[in-house]
Amino acid sequence: MSDPQLDPDLQEFLEIRKPGAHLEEGVVADDFVLMLRVDLDNYPKFARVDDSVTYPKAALDVRQLLDVDSGAELPDYSGPYRADLRFTDFSKEALATKFLPWSEKYLQLVVDGWAGEVAKRYGAEAMAEIEWTAWNDQVVPELERMKNEFLPAGAAYQDDPNQQRRAEDRVGTRVVYAGLFTPGPNMIDLSKEQLVTWLLGSHEYLLQCIEAWAAQITVRYGLDEMFDIQWTLWGDSVLPGVKKLKAEYLGITGNTVEDWMKDLQTDATAMPGKAFDLSFEMPEPEVGVMTFNRCVAVDQWESMGRPDILEKNCNSTCPKSMIETTKMYNPNMKVEILAIPPRVDPGNVCCKWRFSMRTEDDPEYVPVERTSKPPPD
For strand 276-284 and strand 351-357, is the pairing parallel, antiparallel, or unpaired? Predict the structure, then answer.
């Protein structure tokens, strides 16, 4: 199976889609995006609460900070919501034995979702070609950099096992994603700072793998198809599985806005780094607000001079993930969009979301059955 040769425009598109590429100097609008197959008229648009209100960037992310010791040694996140959560608030044991294994399972769940949906649409052979091209062309070149950036000096990493697979044997054989950020048996011996850095690296690795799939779909079938696949797989397969993983590994359960805010604070696809900067607040007991100060999609499409494609990108992915997941926590959790691209000023936040609980007088309130049965032993 030979990989398709990319022309310079396609290669430039793939380069700008790498995590962190939008932060480099000299990024300019790319005329190639004009050729992408995307319908900018016919797609669902989600309304903001008030179009006249904008939100300048204010409080920035603190979850990644290593130089502040709260003294907390949380075993998981089953306890109360922490407004100023930092990953160093968790114990070394929690980071080594819960967060890092959870992050890898999250990655596998997502790439399995991509593989399943792509195979359903185009067949197993096309899926294999897409996955192996994504891995070899877009992930492999970044492995050494990520190893040096995020893993402790001397950390053992075996050679990529996928390179031992002959091209003719790839159909019917999936890429092995485990290895680079797979936690080893002696992780507890690392410092908390090293463990948090490892976790942030696993987040960037996850984004690199997701982006590789998305970019390969885009160059073959167009943006509209990529958006549709994302819309389908996140709502139908990934989000339910992610919620179960968070309950199993991180102790995040329950059905309140507070529980949902804890879910958002720890999500592996939106950790702080090159791609994202978020802030969280609960101004009232049953009201939560999440703000994206920086988002890779916003930076990338704005750098290409295409806020119109950005608008479709955001409306085609983010609202569904928010709405579907909040329903899994509580059917009466309300999602309001305070800000969503396009934005009128680069000094404004990328998007802003408010979560609250519907009351019984709300027309969209879902009656919840009450039972008198005692809880199971």
Answer: unpaired
Q: What is the DSSP letter of 376?
A: P
Please give the Cα distance from 90 to 95 (Å, whole number). Answer: 7
Residue with tokens 């599985």: 241
The H or E element that residue 353 is part of is: strand 351-357
Which residues partner with 292 through β-bridges? 278, 351
Distance of alpha carbon 220 from the chain centroid = 23
From the list 59, 48, 52, the residue with the least C-alpha distance to 351 is 48
pTM higher than 0.85: yes
pLDDT, tens digit, for every residue of 314-336? 998 888 888 888 988 999 999 99
The C-alpha atoms of residue 222 and residue 309 are separated, in whole angstroms, by 12
**Of the ranges 70-84, 269-283, 324-338, 358-372, which one carries the lowest mean pLDDT score?**
358-372
Residue 24's pLDDT is what? 52
| pLDDT at site 22 | 46
* 94, 78 contact by CB (below 8 A): no
Cα–Cα dist 187/328, whole Å: 33
Can you read off the two tokens belonging to residue 183?
């936690």
Residue 240 CB coordination number (10 Å):
15
Q: What is the residue-wise DSSP string for 181-212? A: S---TTGGGS-HHHHHHHHHHHHHHHHHHHHH
Residue written as token pair 């989000």: 239
Give 66's Cβ-side CA count (13 Å radius): 10
Over residues 142-162, the pLDDT tens digits come to 999 999 999 998 776 667 788
Exposed / middle / buried, residue 195 (Cβ in 10 Å: 0-12, 13-18, 19+): buried
Average pLDDT rounded to a whole number, residues 166-191: 88
Sheet order of strands, 276-284 included: 276-284, 287-295, 351-357, 333-339
Higher pLDDT, 217 or 377: 217
Would you say the C-alpha torsion 356, 314, 181, 170 has a positive or negative sign?
positive
Query: Strands 276-284 and 333-339: what pairing?
Result: unpaired
Count CA atoms closer than 13 A to 222's CA, side-chain side: 10
Residues 6+ apart with CB under 8 A from 346: 302
Element at 293 (helix H, strand E): strand 287-295
Say whether 10 sits in a helix, a strand or coil: helix
